[in-house]
Specification:
Layout lengths: L6 H24 L6 H14 L3 E2 L18 E4 L2 E3 L13 E10 L2 E10 L6 H20 L6 H14 L10 E3 L6 E5 L16 E4 L2 E3 L5 E3 L6 E3 L5 E3 L2 E6 L2 E4 L4 H15 L1
Antiparallel strand pairs: 1-4, 2-4, 3-11, 4-5, 6-7, 6-8, 8-13, 9-12, 10-11, 13-14
Helix pairs in contact: 1-2, 3-4
Length: about 270
């Protein structure tokens, strides 16, 4: 199913996107050496419920997982990259953590992910990998113009990641999003330009470049959910939910303070 959202639905999507971004921002702020992954999950639960929203993960039971997932956020550490199930683990200095959060508010979902190093022992290789996914994401967003095609997004994401020296797994990627978290179209992190579904205003997409340091192969944990690099190498994952508009792509999953700063800057420039 591919949904095209109307103006009211897009307005609600902005609220959902801001909530997702604000929660991720706060969780990153709270996360320090010694923080337990189960504490992060509990914090996420509290903030989601306080906002009157609903987790997209708790009851999530797709064919590729051993569902239902049963937690409020994905917490992937070091060699884990996708669907990281929170468990009793205290983060160590230098751990590379990915937080992936999807929430529905007033009937519209939004999905985002951030990767960052915990503590002070940051490795240059980790920073470079995170930066590569962020650059690929912003390239994909720039390519997401009305009239372009899904393949155009996939192509630029893949071009950035490959140029940075990473192999690309095509099993999991971005996706459509709207009244439910996962919808068509699928957006691979590499592809051919001018192919696939034609983008149109009102379409919402979650773009999510992710890489593993030295492989493109995944293995699944005994929990049936957590996906890790087959070699045990480190990983990174960055994601935004965007809406296609007549003038380009609008990033919905920006924290409230960032949106405020952007609005202030634009007002000053127009004045």
């Amino acid at each position: 199913m591919i949904e095209i959202l109307n103006a009211d639905e897009l307005s609600r999507a902005r609220d959902t996107g801001a909530l997702v971004a604000d929660i991720l921002h706060e969780l990153k702020r709270r996360t320090v050496v010694g923080t337990n992954l189960l504490s992060i999950d509990q914090w996420a639960k509290e903030m989601i419920l306080e906002a009157g929203a609903k987790s997209c993960y708790v009851d999530y039971a797709p064919s590729f997982g051993r569902g239902p997932f049963g937690h409020y956020i994905c917490t992937a550490v070091n060699d884990a990259v996708l669907h990281g199930m929170p468990h009793d683990y205290a983060l160590a200095d230098g751990d590379l953590l990915t937080l992936d959060l999807a929430v529905a508010l007033r009937g519209i979902a939004a999905d985002a992910a951030i990767s960052f190093t915990v503590g002070d022992a940051a490795a240059a290789e980790d920073a470079a990998m995170i930066t590569a996914t962020e650059r690929a994401l912003h390239a994909g967003i720039a390519a997401a113009q009305s009239g372009a095609r899904i393949g155009d997004i996939s192509h630029v994401i893949g071009t950035v990641l490959t140029a940075a020296g990473y192999q690309i797994n095509l099993e999991f990627g971005g996706h459509g999003i709207g009244s439910t978290m996962h919808q068509d179209p699928h957006i691979s992190n590499s592809g051919r330009p001018s192919r696939g579904y034609k983008l149109r205003p009102g379409l919402m997409l979650a773009l999510e470049p992710w890489v593993m340091a030295d492989t493109d192969r995944l293995v699944t944990d005994a929990d049936g959910w957590t996906l890790r690099s087959a070699t045990g190498s480190r990983t990174a994952h960055t994601e935004h939910t965007i809406a296609i508009t007549t003038t380009g792509a609008e990033i919905l999953t920006l924290p409230t303070h960032v949106r405020g700063e952007m609005a202030t800057r634009l007002a000053a420039e127009s004045g």
